[in-house]
């Protein structure tokens, strides 16, 4: 596992691209500038790690595009020390970004192989999420609720009710909703029963799978 000056140089270029695409949050940009994304991917894709693209990882899944990671992270508007739940740990790259932002990170993955591999890998890199869970993200993680923010990193055909109900008041859920393509949707919990909804453009994710193991 090597991170070289050449990698750091490429990361800086990636950050410049994200700035051009409209990412403003300094902490998010500095997390991306710091995290060795190439180590989260199969070594045969190493040369592509700092392009602004999604890539295949194990178990037919993908590591999200850096722009998408940055866009979703920015939308959380969470502060250091806040509790943030991620659905779809995958490669752990987004998890690492959330850790760099100083959040207390909880993350759920339904693919056993990825769950095990990523848990080990994140700890090797020195990232310490509060809790990595093997299970179904549609249910959220009631034991640790409520959360200041929830981020879903797979395309949800509909908005799972448990995720809305596990948000704290003023908490934010960032979720791509749709089947073949998704609309990035932000829900802000205004009260026990009221949610504000914002739609923020089209994205493409692998599906959030239900009732399968
Ligand atoms: N955040 C990841 C993105 C991975 S792709 C990264 O940065 O690499 C989406 C992930 O969601 C996949 O790993 C997939 O296995 C997982 N997933 C799909 N359905 C899920 C569900 N119901 N619960 C938890 N994880 C799920």
Overview of this structure, please?
The protein is α/β, with parallel strands linked by helices and 213 residues long. It has a 7-stranded mixed sheet. α6 (161-165) links the parallel β6 (147-152) and β7 (167-177). It has a single domain (54-203), classed as Vaccinia Virus protein VP39 (Rossmann fold). α1 packs antiparallel against α2 (26-34) and α2 crosses α4. The radius of gyration is 16 Å and the shape is globular. The chain contains 6 helices and 9 strands. It has helices at residues 5-20, 26-34, 66-76, 93-100, 112-125, 161-165, and strands spanning 55-56, 62-63, 83-87, 104-109, 131-134, 147-152, 167-177, 182-189, 195-203. The site of S-adenosyl-L-homocysteine has 23 residues, from β2, α4 and β4. S-adenosyl-L-homocysteine binds next to β2, α4 and β4.
Give the arrangement of secondary structure elements.
Elements: H1 5-20, H2 26-34, E1 55-56, E2 62-63, H3 66-76, E3 83-87, H4 93-100, E4 104-109, H5 112-125, E5 131-134, E6 147-152, H6 161-165, E7 167-177, E8 182-189, E9 195-203
Parallel strand pairs: 3-4, 3-6, 4-5, 6-7
Antiparallel strand pairs: 1-2, 7-8, 8-9
This protein binds S-adenosyl-L-homocysteine (SAH).
Residues 61-64, 87-88, 90-91, 93-94, 108-111, 114, 136-138, 153-154, 206, 208-209 line the site of S-adenosyl-L-homocysteine.
What Rg do the Cα atoms give?
Answer: 16 Å
Q: CATH homologous superfamily name?
A: Vaccinia Virus protein VP39
Derived from helix and strand composition plus strand pairing, the structural class reads: alpha/beta
Provide the CATH topology: Rossmann fold
Helix and strand element order: HHEEHEHEHEEHEEE
**Number of spatially distinct domains:** 1
What small ligands are held by the chains?
Answer: S-adenosyl-L-homocysteine
How many helices in DSSP terms?
6
- Report strand %: 15-25%
The strand order across the widest sheet is 5-4-3-6-7-8-9
Low-pLDDT runs? none
CATH class type? Alpha Beta
CATH architecture: 3-Layer(aba) Sandwich
Tell the overall outline. Answer: globular
Kindly, what is the distance between the CA atoms of the first and last residues, rounded to a whole number of angstroms?
31 Å
What would the average pLDDT be, to the nearest integer? 95
**Main sheet summary:** 7 strands, mixed
**How much helix is in the residues?**
25-40%
Q: Count of DSSP E strands?
A: 9
